[in-house]
Amino acid sequence: MLSFCGQDRCSVDANGRLKLSPKVVSDFTGKCGGQIVIHCLPEGAIAIYPEEIYLEMRRQETLPAAKAANSMVFRRSMRRFGAMSSPESISNQGRVTLPQAFREYAAVNPGSEVFVVGVEIGIEIWNTERWAEEIDRMNEHAREKGEREMAADLLPGDNIQ
């Protein structure tokens, strides 16, 4: 069965907790026993990954200490991941507490409705307006890419009959 797919509307409670659907909780429990990492995305959303997936993302860098010693860009990347990530656990009730600074960053306010979006390796939490904008951007990108692909298929000199 596919993990971390689909989208749900959920509410953030007054304490900044998000109750996940039983399917999402099951996906996380099966992948990591409920040990997760919450991470703020540059797109303005909050990602929640199984801890092992997050660690795999970070292990992609070879010799991080040497790179950090020599690269301001790499230090900035490390700084962003460090400051914008937080290890957490999913509660027995299927809730996850979103840190206040992360909620502010993603415009996810207590009492507000959000979209929980499956991204195959985890989930993303989106403010409803930002999610609508992101869907528009994704659809526009797909249309433009399709138009370029079709235009490339009609190379000059092809005889169309």
- What top-tier CATH class fits best? Alpha Beta
- In CATH terms, what is the fold-level topology? Chemotaxis protein chec
| Amount of helix | 40-55%
The proportion of strand residues reads 15-25%
Name given to the CATH homologous superfamily? Transcriptional regulator MraZ domain
- Number of β-strand runs: 8
The CATH architecture designation is: 3-Layer(aba) Sandwich
Q: End-to-end distance, in Å?
A: 46 Å
- The gross shape turns out to be globular
SSE class:
alpha+beta
Uncertain residue ranges: none
Would you spell out the secondary-structure blueprint of this structure?
Elements: E1 7-11, E2 17-19, H1 22-32, E3 35-40, E4 46-50, H2 51-59, H3 64-70, H4 72-83, E5 85-89, E6 95-97, H5 100-105, E7 113-118, E8 123-127, H6 128-153
Antiparallel strand pairs: 1-7, 2-6, 3-4, 3-5, 4-8, 7-8
Helix pairs in contact: 3-4
What does this structure look like?
The structure is a single chain. The protein has 161 residues and is of the alpha+beta class. It has one domain: Transcriptional regulator MraZ domain (Chemotaxis protein chec, 3-Layer(aba) Sandwich), CATH 3.40.1550. Helices cover 44% and strands 24% of the residues. The chain contains 6 helices and 8 strands, in the order E-E-H-E-E-H-H-H-E-E-H-E-E-H. The chain has helices at 22-32, 51-59, 64-70, 72-83, 100-105, 128-153, and strands spanning 7-11, 17-19, 35-40, 46-50, 85-89, 95-97, 113-118, 123-127. The chain has a 6-stranded antiparallel beta sheet with strand order 1-7-8-4-3-5. Strands 2-6 form a two-stranded antiparallel sheet. A hairpin with a 4-residue loop joins strand 7 and strand 8. The chain is globular. It starts with 6 loop residues before the first strand and ends in an 8-residue tail after the last helix.
